[in-house]
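QA checklist item 7 of 12: single-chain prediction sanity check.
[x] sequence parsed
[x] length recorded as 137
[x] structure emitted
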Amino acid sequence: MKWIQWALIGLLFGLSSSYIIMSLNVFFEGGSKSGRELLVQAILGAGLGICIGLVGQILTTNLPLKISYSIHYICINILVFLFGTVGEWFEPTWRSIFSLLATIAITYVIISIMLTILMKKQVDEINHLLKERDSYD
């Protein structure tokens, strides 16, 4: 059941991301996209989102956090590169590949900081509840 949930969350993320990217693309480059082009991009975005959601399951394993993050990072890079190549989201040059790797790394750092703050808040709340419970005993 968790696999389906992760896949659906990934699907929603992929569809919304592809919509934003396509909208920005049309806005900044001008012109328009055909219905067929938009459908292909939506399918690629949905597929990428589902794959990312499923790969996210690695983060729920009992592997050490650094190892699971490393595996997840490598898989996400491979997926984005494959889907991006098919969808022509970038030109396969060393510069664009480096830019892709850097963008994903920066995203990881930002998300890690946010997760750390949230986990610290949860730990503080649990510690507070435990102290209150101990004071009643």
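[x] summary fact logged: The radius of gyration is 19 Å.
[ ] second reviewer sign-off
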